[in-house]
Design a protein that fits this description.
The complex is a heterodimer of chains A (about 240) and B (about 475). Chain A contains eight helices and ten strands. Classes of the chains: A alpha+beta (about 240), B mainly alpha (about 475). Chains A and B meet through helix 3, strand 2, helix 4 and strand 6 of A and helix 6 of B.
Chain lengths: ~240, ~475
């Protein structure tokens, strides 16, 4: 009976969804709380200082910091960058084994078990948000105790990336389905959105015109990262007047 | 080459003449046209078979050194599989490193074999005859080395078979949209095709070797000759098969390096995303492959004392083709560059800046020197026909082309659209060992091949000699070339 329900026609899964995220850069303070929250939620390994300096950090979301202007009129600009969950994702067609593919809900899924580690998706991604497991993951002592049981720990030699906290999406979706009610806007909170102190990150269904994310996305301040490449990102940035951080 | 040969130039008569009826004044010219000393058939057999068993102490020293390098490389590969890919030098923007650059290099080297044997066979170019086998063997072994890299660079090499379309209980097929799949199919096709091509052309020589050897060699050659007797029907079939193969393998050889280039060109990575990449890669492959062939021929000729067969005429002709390929490479390189330059895209300009005056400049200028300088020197016949000079320039070209691949793969990956993600790359001992392993492995396979199989295609040479005869027209003796293929 349960199985029938899982694959029913009007199942909330596979309905008309396009998960998206709006990041208000005017609000972002660059505090990196989202980075830490993401590491904790998704069992993302910490690689250590030397490896990180060589470009092997594995953050699924990272804060890009740019300096603007000349000293002394200098400004720091922060931009949280995570997988843009592109509509026309450059990473997807290049995978030889379908380890990365497009879901019904518009997400770029990464199947860890299927990945053989060609790193082609990483080379193809213009945002460079895919990370590779260079070694078997190591979690130093206190961190070992807080691994999230809902997320697999990835082995060496495979790619991984932001999933929009797919485990949270599924949990809320299935909870709603069991309770036989529709999903509310804002019910699903990825770890980064949940932990953002100024509330710069808003997650929601872009297909739903009434969702907060949709409303924010239609703002005059909105832009998408490297939009000119035609990748169709689902992450929308907001950037308006002068913010001097 | 099938037109009548004009007579010019006189020289001293050779000591032994194949055709006694030949006037002394003509025989020198005749011999030049044949690209062969006047020898009897059994002398040719002997001259080809004899160096195969001549393995002095130095030969075994070289074999031992090469085998040691291969063993060390295998250890490095095992080390990488055991500890994870982090022991190699790649990192986040530079997801592909030395391995992929060397992969392109080897695929490039493999192109000369087909270029020489198939293209020149179709056009009935006579100087190809003594060097086809060496070129085809180079193709096969270079492809074997190239084929290792898609495995070596896998994060989980023990799952490589997921790239092979095999029926399985999950109904999972590989993604035929992925250029890596095209790559795998193209390389397998080319490897199978070129190995068969190498083998087909070897059958009559296997029979010749069978008839002239004893013990294990006899058993091996008897097995490989497939009962060849040399009847008219057999020759007819062999020629048909070779003609079909020559024509079929040319599109395959063009497609292989085009597909390798599309691994890069289909991505959005600046400077990779270019329509000229396919022909640029193909011409670069021919350039480096022919140069590598010239270098190998010089070395083999010296090592196996094949001066009778690999003569200055061959090096002269080969040098000319290398020069033309080099000019073609330069043209495609420039055609790509000028468009990128005028496009003035910020990322592309940053990459060009890196190459011209940035951190990649030393490599870039070394590459351009190694690639362009030989083109000018190869214009001189003196350079083309002096083995040491030809060897030097051929090695230079290959250094240049290797660096070119390094610059394309590693150099271009270091920069991308978002400056936050820029990075650098340093190869580690693991990568260097594995790359060295393929060079040693190639050399090892090649020199073992040259001692086990006749390096010079004897039947092709004999056939070439049959093409030329002297006809008396009135009082004039005229050498004629016949259509025999």
């Amino acid at each position: 009976m349960k199985e029938e329900k899982l694959f029913a026609e009007n199942s909330p899964i596979s309905s008309n969804r396009r998960w998206g995220m709006v990041i208000d850069l005017d609000r972002c303070t660059g505090c990196q709380a989202c980075v830490v929250a993401c590491h904790a939620e998704n069992n993302v390994p910490v690689v250590g200082e030397a490896e990180a300096a060589y470009g092997r950090w594995m953050h699924w979301i990272h804060i890009e910091r740019y300096w603007e202007g000349e000293y002394p009129n200098i400004k720091a600009r922060f931009m949280p960058v995570l997988c843009q969950q592109c509509d026309e994702a450059p990473c997807e067609p290049v995978c030889p084994v379908f380890a990365t593919y497009h879901t019904d809900e518009g997400l770029n899924a990464q199947i860890y078990n299927r990945c053989i580690g060609t790193r082609y998706c990483g080379s193809a991604c213009p945002y460079k948000v895919r990370t590779f497991n260079w070694f078997d993951p190591e979690f130093p002592e206190p961190l070992k105790e807080q691994l999230n049981p809902n997320v697999t720990v990835r082995t060496r030699g495979i790619m991984e990336k932001c999933t929009f906290c797919i485990q949270r999406i599924r949990q809320v979706e299935e909870g709603a389905k069991m309770a036989d009610r529709v999903l509310e806007d804002g019910e699903i909170q990825p770890a980064c959105a949940q932990s953002c102190p100024p509330g710069a990150i808003v997650f929601g269904n872009l297909e739903d015109e009434d969702s907060l994310a949709s409303k924010l996305a239609s703002s005059r301040r909105s832009f998408r990262l490297l939009d000119e490449l035609g990748t169709g990102p689902a992450v929308i940035y907001l950037k308006g007047g002068e913010t001097n951080v | 080459m099938s037109e009548a040969i004009p007579l010019a130039g006189k020289g001293p008569a050779p000591e032994k003449s194949r055709t006694d009826s030949l006037p002394a004044s003509l025989s020198n010219e005749y011999q030049d046209r044949l690209l062969l000393e006047a020898m009897k058939d059994w002398e040719i057999n002997q001259a080809v078979l004899e160096p195969m068993s001549r393995t002095g102490p130095w030969f075994w020293v070289i074999v031992a050194v090469l085998a040691a390098i291969v063993a060390w490389g295998l250890y490095a590969w095992g080390y990488q599989i055991y500890w994870g890919f982090g022991v190699a030098g790649i990192n986040r923007p530079v997801y592909w490193g030395f391995y992929i650059a060397t992969f392109i290099f080897w695929v490039g080297i493999s192109h000369a074999g087909t270029m020489i044997s198939a293209v020149l066979r179709i056009f009935k170019v006579d100087w190809r005859r003594p060097i086809t086998r060496g070129a085809e063997a180079m193709t096969a072994f270079a492809l074997m080395m190239a084929g290792l890299f898609p495995l070596i660079h896998l994060g989980r090499v023990w799952k490589f078979y997921w790239m092979i379309p095999y029926p399985n209980n999950r109904f999972m097929w590989p993604n035929f949209q992925s250029p890596l799949m095209w790559d795998m199919i193209a390389i397998f096709t080319y490897l199978i095709g070129s190995s068969l091509y190498l083998y087909l052309a070897m059958i009559p020589d296997m029979a010749m070797a069978r008839d002239n050897t004893v013990r294990w060699r006899y058993k091996l050659y008897r097995l490989m000759a497939l009962g060849w007797r040399g009847t008219e029907a057999e020759w007819h079939k062999l020629h048909r098969a070779l003609n079909i193969f020559s024509i079929i393998i040319i599109p395959v050889f063009l497609s292989v390096h085009s597909i390798v280039s599309w691994d890069f060109a289909v991505t959005l990575q600046p400077r990779w995303h270019s329509t000229i990449f396919a022909p640029y890669f193909v011409i670069g492959a021919i350039y480096s492959g022919l140069a590598a062939l010239a270098a190998i021929l010089v070395l083999v000729r010296w090592g196996m004392k094949l001066q009778n067969f690999l003569r200055m005429e061959h090096f002269n002709a080969l040098g000319k083709v290398v020069m033309v390929a080099g000019l073609g490479w330069l043209y495609f390189w420039f055609a790509g560059l000028i468009v990128e330059w005028y496009g003035n895209e910020p990322v592309v300009m940053e990459l060009l800046h890196e190459e011209f005056i940035g951190s990649l400049a030393p490599l870039f200028y070394l590459q351009m020197t190694c690639n362009v300088l030989p083109i000018f020197f190869l214009m001189f016949k003196k350079v083309r026909t002096t083995p040491v000079l030809l060897l030097t320039f051929a090695i230079m070209i290959n250094i240049g082309m290797f660096i070119e691949r390094v610059l394309i793969v590693i150099g271009d990956l270091q920069r991308n659209y978002l400056p936050f993600n820029w990075g650098t790359y340093r190869p580690t001992w693991v990568e260097i060992s594995i790359v060295a392993m393929t060079f040693a492995g190639f050399s090892l396979l090649y020199i073992l091949f040259s001692r086990i199989f006749p390096y010079v295609p004897v039947w092709e040479i004999k056939e070439g000699r049959l093409r030329y005869t002297l006809r008396r027209i009135g009082r004039l003796l005229i050498p004629t070339a016949a259509e025999i293929e």
